Amino acid sequence: MTRTVTVGAAQLGPIAKDESRSAVVARLIGLLEEGAAAGCSLVVFPELALTTFFPRWYTEEITGHDHYYETEMPSPATQPLFDRAKALGVGFAIGYAELTEDGHRFNTTVLVEQDGSIVGRYRKVHIPGHENDEPWRPFQHLERRYFEESNEGFTVFRSFDGIVGMATCNDRRWPETYREMGLQGVEMVLIGYNTPIHYAPDPGQNALQGFHNHLCMQAGAYQNGTWVVGVAKGGTEEGVESLAQSCIIAPSGQIVAQTVTTGDELIVAKADLDWCAKYKDTLFNFATYRRPELYQRIGSQKGVIEPPKVNNGGPS
Ligand code: CDT
Question: Is 124 one of the catalytic residues?
């Protein structure tokens, strides 16, 4: 018997600054129900799926954005989503801003089983952007002000009849993200994202946002023999245009489903988890072919250390 997970990528369109949690949760439930009707056992929502992408605004005090954070999950506002998931027998993954009891702030995603119980939590590792107000930008990307870097790393979870991991937005650009989970046998990586089209430090990259999005997720899928589900919050939110192009990628690296709008849209794929072994047991048989003794820099060195400049005998 093959292990097949019918998975839905539930892309969201913009969430307005003043949109209530209950209005957003109603949108999420609508997509969950659509997923159930399509036979999904798992529906994946984006990063920060309960609020607008608030790191685009600077507040002098970090607490100025506290109303965008969740202090419990589920909460009274999100409980209806968990209840509906349990009733439908559909699991889900959802990203949100987490404020812990002892005052830590993380960009978090939880994985919820078909019985409505939380089976896994992931806190974003690679936090992009900047910490201080940079008024020269048309809008801010202050994730480094509003979120801490997680020290928990990339755990994978036995769920949905397979091995499932999570990553968040900027994490998808880093090969280490996939390989850390690949080394734990991951079969499906769930990735939510909010990616503004305009990249202020180098606008030359703007036109390539869609290409880079798929490039890194397709490579991560293929090189680790895993499914990847990439889910956007897209469209123009509070005046900032963000990438959509959510997709479901097979272990071959091929995109098998992709959204065609920039709004709320569900795409579905039947993900055969046994397909992963075709890559994990052949070309990417890590146990046979990897050479970790030659990869020491990857685990120990953070920045670039160039080789010393050599004297080539020319005039000094
Ligand atoms: N949310 C998130 O991580 N977005 C980043 C934007 C990078 S530009 C500061 C991304 O990698 O898509």
Answer: yes
Q: How many residues does the chain have?
A: 316
Q: Which CATH superfamily is domain 4-300 in?
A: Carbon-nitrogen hydrolase (3.60.110.10)
**Per residue in 251-289, pLDDT tens?**
999 999 999 999 999 999 999 999 999 999 999 999 999
> Which tens digit of pLDDT belongs to each residue from 81-110?
999 999 999 999 999 999 999 999 999 999
Q: Are 169 and 190 in contact (CB under 8 A)?
A: no
Nearest-atom index, ligand 1, CA of 243: 12
pTM: 0.97
Rounded Cα distance, 54 and 61, in Å: 14
Main-chain dihedrals φ then ψ at residue 218, nearest 5 degrees:
-65, -40
Question: Which residues have CB under 8 Å from 305's CB, separation 6+?
Answer: none
Question: What is the 126 CA–ligand 1 centroid distance (Å)?
Answer: 9
